[in-house]
Design a protein that fits this description.
The protein is mainly alpha-helical. The protein has one domain: Intergrase catalytic core (hpI Integrase, Chain A), CATH 1.10.443.10. It is built from 9 helices and 5 strands. A 3-stranded antiparallel β-sheet has the order 1-2-5. Strands 3-4 form a two-stranded antiparallel ribbon.
């Protein structure tokens, strides 16, 4: 406006913001199916990290957000219907306060179907869960699946650290290195695998809890020539 009114000759802010702000964000990429199999096999057979196998298997095969997984309670695992009820998330604030958050959109409330392998993992988690002296309660929710050494629900930071240590040990042992794997990478890997397997985008949107189909469809861009070739052959032979 000052330039237009001839109050100044040149706009001192007439530059693109991208030219002065460095984009240091890290793109979270999915890992390949082989990397997923190798990683899960390593976790299952490791004497120390095998205790985390069931939870990480579930993260890789449900696409749950880590805050949704941490918020799961025993009644949320509906074995009779073979489904997981997802209607809340567990967070821990910087003040170390545990809070339950409702999904930001209606799409976040959903039932995620379970396979028999997932159900087996959930059953083991419940069977191995040590009963605390006092069940922790957060905003009315109790009987959380995974508790820490202080008998409080595990939060995202716990699983991020576990995975960090797992990858560190894996890469010390094997020559072919495993990329960084976080709970979000597990979610993204699940979404990519389902997309490459030909799952209907609307079905995948529902399972992922995406409010916007464009978020789901972006996953379908993470394909390569081999994926396109397989899909073409599948359609031709159907």
């Amino acid at each position: 406006m000052a330039v237009d009114d001839d109050l100044i000759r040149k706009n001192p802010f007439g530059f693109g913001l991208a030219s002065v702000i460095v984009n240091d964000s890290v793109t979270r990429e999915a890992i390949t199916r082989k990397q997923e199999r190798d990683l899960l096999k390593f976790i299952r057979e490791d004497n120390h990290f095998s205790r985390y196998y069931d939870a990480i298997y579930i993260l890789f095969h449900t696409g749950l957000r880590i805050s949704e997984f941490c918020g799961l309670t025993i009644p949320d695992i509906e074995f009779g219907e073979m489904r997981i009820k997802v209607n809340h998330q567990l967070q821990r604030t910087s003040q170390m306060e545990y809070v339950i958050q409702e999904p930001k959109t209606e799409s976040g409330v959903r039932y995620v179907p379970m396979t028999e392998e997932m159900a087996t993992c959930f059953r083991r988690i419940i069977a191995n869960r040590e009963t605390p002296k006092v069940e922790p309660m957060v905003d009315g929710y109790i009987r959380f699946l995974c508790l820490d050494k202080n008998d409080m629900p595990k939060v995202a930071l716990h699983w991020e650290k576990y995975m960090e240590h797992i990858i560190e040990k894996y890469n010390k042992i094997y020559r072919i290195q495993m990329p960084k794997v976080t709970p979000h990478v597990c979610r993204h890997t699940f979404c990519s695998n389902m997309a490459k397997s030909g799952m209907n985008p609307k079905t995948l949107q529902y399972i992922m809890g995406h409010s916007d189909i464009s978020v789901t469809l972006n996953t379908y861009t993470h394909v390569n020539f081999d994926d396109a070739k397989e899909e073409l052959q599948r359609v031709a032979n159907s």
